[in-house]
Amino acid sequence: MKPAVFLLCSFFALMSVPALAQEADSAAQPQTFEYEWAGEKMTMQQYFIVFLKSGPERSQSEKEALKLQQEHLAYLGNLYEEGIINLNGASGGDSDIRGFSVYNVATIEEAREYAENDPMVKAGRLVVEVYPWWLAKGSVVE
After folding, report:
1. What's the predicted TM-score (pTM) here?
2. Is it the case that residue 88 has pLDDT exceeding 50?
3. Structural domains of the chain, with CATH
4. Which of 73, 84, 109, 111 has the fewest CB atoms within 10 Å, measured from its CB?
5. CA dist., res. 72 & res. 123, Å (int)
6. Nearest 5°: phi and psi at 96?
7. Cβ atoms 52, 103 nearer than 8 A
């Protein structure tokens, strides 16, 4: 299925979430539910999208900011390698949103904890906003 269809399915599924039975495993697994759209069955999963926004503390020296950036990229890369993050990316333009990550964890609190342990967030250069996001499990960006 094309990525655009998965995103469309996600939108329609999100509209139907309250009416569908959701599964919450006691072993702290992400919530999922089965969904059928256009004759295709899929598992919808709750992920958490974390927006990284410009923080209040941006007065670090160029050298310190570069060091924090390297630590930030290493931290996010490790979370990706561990399967905690499925997608990372910087944003462009003049927005306060500097980038985002999609976390594959069981709770919003867990996503927030990981995000707040990012060296750039700890230093105040970035702040986070965390939102639940339902997406067809296995969706990809091509």
Report:
1. 0.77
2. yes
3. 3-136 (3.30.70.1060)
4. 109
5. 10
6. -70, -20
7. no
What does the block give as tokens for 89? 């990316």
Q: In this structure, what token pair is assigned to residue 110? A: 């867990």
Distance, CA of 78 to CA of 80 (rounded, Å): 5
Q: What is the DSSP string of the chain?
A: --HHHHHHHHHHHHHHGGGS--B--TTTPPPEEEEEETTEEEEEEEEEEEEEEE-S-----HHHHHHHHHHHHHHHHHHHHTTSEEEEEE--SS-SEEEEEEE--S-HHHHHHHHHTSHHHHTTSEEEEEEEEEEETT----
Half-sphere exposure of 48 (CA within 13 A, CB side): 24
